[in-house]
Amino acid sequence: MTPTLIVLLCLGGSEDQSLKPTESGPQRGDIPKPSIWADPGPTITKGSPVTIWCQGSLQASAYGLYKERGSEPWETRIPQNSSNKARFLIGAMTPSHAGLYQCAYYTTGDILSEQSDPLLLVVTGVYSAPSFSAQPGPVVAAGGNVSLSCSSEFTSGPFHLLKEGGADPPRHIEAEWRKHAETRQAIFPVGPVSPSQGGTYRCFGSSSSNPNVWTQPSAPLHIEVTGVHREPALSAQPGTLVLPGHSLTLQCHAEAGFDRFALTKDEGLTPPQRLDGQRSPDFPLGPVNRTHGGRYRCYSGHHLSSAWSAPSPLDILVAGMYRKPSLSAQPGPSVPRGATVTLQCGSEIWLDTFHLHREGSLDPPQHLRLQNTSAPSQANFTLSPVSSGHQGTYRCYGSNSTSPYLLSQPSDPLELEVSGFRWNLIILIGGSVALVLLLSLPLFLLIRKRRQSKGRMLGTKESGAAFTSSLEHFTETINSLHVPH
User: What is the rounded radius of gyration, in angstroms, for the C-alpha atoms of the chain?
Assistant: First the structure.
């Protein structure tokens, strides 16, 4: 029996029976270097089990596990069932188990392999969790930068940053004292951000005496990367200008293949803080109140991905917050086509911004902001040259720049008529009917010829009467057409 097997079968053997080359024994030669890994991973919660695997060769007769680069094996195992690897089980992880591990194996002839690369085991959950945040926020455009801040008042050692499901090793930064606070903090810069850097991050603190003993994990922080795909289209039903109590639905229209949608609302100068995705592109927001006014942004993405499209902004205006303004037309509400008309919107109370909206239009209202605060509260909207597209019912609204999305009650309606529009429509209808008559004439002549050839049809007089009757029918059709005023 070889000295190696004697060591493995006799627990508590002397030092000269340990797993190491004898002074007179063969040397390593060219046998492969073993590999080592931990299952479920190298970062283990306190009290949880972990298995260390060492893989070598089918010719291996014994495996040894070394801790902290020691010369003596911490534990030895014989491979089972002619396997090329051995397992070392730690039933419950403690701070004393944290540290560096390596493994080696013996082959036939007592040749000891080279030791594996080191495996660092870390134990977590020993101290309270640190706080974790992102500046300026967890939503960052591709190519931008974000700083992840980890701070704690319970530890004084390095801080550690891990990304869930990531292949990269943890990042480590020494703690620094925060000014005017009894805490230590580390800043992890991330950027320029790429889509692969989106995902869920956690941070840990550690002891200054043992940096492999970590705190409980921080709360998860989800980094969302925008601008990866083309922006969707964002629309509002029934429109972007709504009254309190009415229903409102925002619809995010994306290209085929996108199955996740997110809607954010800007709060002042603060950028969007989170992207909560949903499968439906419809976002019902009613019944409307003053809090619904603001700028919304729509994003589209793919399921289980942190990469999002560029944002699609849309402003929602809520009316009914102030007394209604007045609306008038100069020189008047009826103007010829090609002329110029000015719609004047004025308010008895001070408002510095005015909005003009044509009922039925899907376009957002025009708006003008007053530059002279000493002048009366009035804005002039000039339409020139007037065309048929300007005809319709107009209302105006007022607002203050301090609350740009909250508008006054609507003004009384103003009907704008374009006088040349009616005659143009009559000419268009008359020309269309004349063209129909012209194209129908050969058909009547063909019918008349066929009737004459059979000899059983009506005479020329009756055919002429039929044609005259048809002309009278077309004339009645023209007279029955409704021409708008």
Answer: 41
Closest by CA position to 244, among listed 199, 214, 289, 187: 289
For 431: left if phi > 0, alpha if psi spans -120 to 50, otherwise beta; the answer is alpha
Query: What is the value of pTM for the model shown?
Result: 0.69
Beta-carbon contacts of 300 under 8 Å, excluding residues fewer than 6 positions away, are 229, 232, 252, 254, 255, 258, 260, 261, 262, 281, 308, 309
Amino acid at residue number 384: S
For the chain, 485 residues long, the average pLDDT of each consecutive 10-residue run is 33 39 49 95 96 94 92 90 92 96 90 94 95 94 96 91 86 81 89 94 93 96 95 94 95 92 80 80 93 95 91 95 96 94 94 94 89 82 94 96 94 93 49 61 62 49 51 53 45
Residues ≥6 apart with Cβ < 8 Å to 214: 43, 122, 123, 124, 125, 126, 127, 160, 204, 205, 206
Phi-psi region of 467 (alpha: psi -120 to 50; beta: other; left: phi over 0): alpha
CA distance to 20, 75, 227, 299, 306, per residue, from 232 (Å): 66, 60, 11, 7, 17
The length of the chain in residues reads: 485
